[in-house]
Amino acid sequence: MATQRTTTKTSKKTTPAPVEPAPCQPCGGTGNVAITVRVGRKRRPVGQQDGLCLNCLGEGTDPDA
User: Which residue has the higher pLDDT, 19 or 46?
Assistant: First the structure.
């Protein structure tokens, strides 16, 4: 007579693929934004330089998502 199996098969659990975070809207995912440089007593603008994005703090990912 054939012997019966007493163990049951267990299914493998699959983990979902990691979700890529959305890029930050103000900086576009770079972490830098353009800051206007002002000089003089009248504080006239003379150009722009790169500054840290205050929304994502330089990470480039959307903190709300």
Answer: 46
